[in-house]
Amino acid sequence: MQDSEFVDGVLSFIKSSPTPFHAVEQMKGQLQKNGFEQLKESDAWQLKTPGKYYVTRNDSSIIAFTLGSGLVEHGFRMVGAHTDSPCLKVKPNPEIIKNSYLQLGVEVYGGVLLSTWFDRDLSLAGRVNFVNDKGEVGNALVDFKKPIAVIPSLAIHLNPEVNENNNINKQQHIPPVLMKLPDEGASPDFREMLLLVVQKQYPDLAAEKVLDYELAFYDTQAPSVVGLHKDFIASARLDNLLSCYIGLISLLQAGTDQNCLLVCNDHEEVGSSSAAGAQGQFLRSVLERLCPSPEDLARAIDQSMMISADNAHGVHPNYADKSDSNHGPVLNQGPVIKVNCNQRYATNSETSAAFRYLCEEADVPVQSFVVRTDMSCGSTIGPITASGIGVRTIDVGVPTFAMHSIRELAGCWDGYYLYRVLREYYR
Ligand SMILES: [Zn+2]
Questions:
Q1: Which of 120, 205, 347, 377 gets the highest tally of CB atoms within 10 A of its CB?
Q2: Span 312-349, pLDDT tens digits
Q3: 378: closest CA among 354, 416, 345, 352?
Q4: Contact between 246 and 419 (Cβ < 8 Å)
């Protein structure tokens, strides 16, 4: 795969994945196309070696793996990433009618950089749970696709200090506006509006009533390549769909000589404490089923390694003092090893040495990130998985700007570099 082909793949994957449900759906499609068999957690598993499998939880987390020989003796080469991104999610009773407009009440999911959500052409996507004409409960993924809402800024004339002090009240200032109501007494029902969308997108499902939903707003502006020399990818959800995509295409090329595994968890942005999140024992449960004897499991884990891939902060030229001057990764200069001795990152010298060696083998530059000593450090699924499973782990990621903005920025080359490293690792 060439770098341009890689970038096209990233753009189309992210565009088709407005929510974790959609990201998992995309990944399932690619895995199936490449001969991976679906497993269900509720079934008894009969696995063949060599074999290629995947399993999902909550439709928003996925584990895919290839089985070669000697799992107990050689363990798994694992890659981890997360499917979720900060966003605005629709509340259960969302209709707000105010000054003749219909708005929807939203919760803030994760650490949203709120100012970036104003004046965007927003659409809505996610999972809808319904009952059909036979009284059966089902669910479907929906995507309105078109821009159906906007959070308009307040004019600067009405808020002259906005550039010095932009206070955004999460309850008051961010409900998106959907429409001007046709008349005074109109009281639109959001579930009925949703039902029409489900019926139109899935006529065969015969949905009769929407029971519930998990829906998130997203920016309809498609991801694109920007910069005078096309250096950058600008897109929503680069954190962390970029790593999901890289993990996926690396695994697709892995073959079955090694035991290779990719886990992409939901709920990282809110602390990972959920059934589908990294704290939810999804990975442990899969590993236990592959190695039912506790001794075999302990031996396999001891022989395994996890590369936890989640984006890193590139040093921002306008805010360079926010980075340690010796550890400010530059975009397009390679993937970043994330280090924090307080274990906000799980990297240790053994795992970082292994990663550096892989980078050398793949002929890829590599950088290091350590947060300024006087600032607190973010975290990710690496330390959670390391402490939950006991697997040696490294935290790495592609350097980015504007993390948690509605439109983040990464270098075109860094994702491709990380792909080359993971491909080498899985080989
Ligand atoms: Zn992340």
A1: 347
A2: 999 999 999 999 999 999 999 999 999 999 999 999 99
A3: 345
A4: yes
